[in-house]
Amino acid sequence: MADSSFVIRDVRIFTGDETIDNGYVLVEGGKIKSVGTSAPSHIGAGVKTISKPGHTVLPGFIDAHNHADGGDPKALPQGIS
What we know:
five-stranded mixed sheet, elongated, mainly beta, about 80 residues, 2 helices, Urease, subunit C, domain 1
């Protein structure tokens, strides 16, 4: 089984409540451990680090896509309410 710990850094993050313009997401054991503006110093040298400047991360979203009923303008607001 592949190691399920990694850091995604240099990304814009939307937490649902706030936006972090240049942040990181630390995943340990397949679960989000922390999110913030600078990665904690305890992250070991062996942890895979992924740098994605210019990308946005939405930590915690699971199967968050919506087809919005073929572009029906009434479907999108109904899908997120």
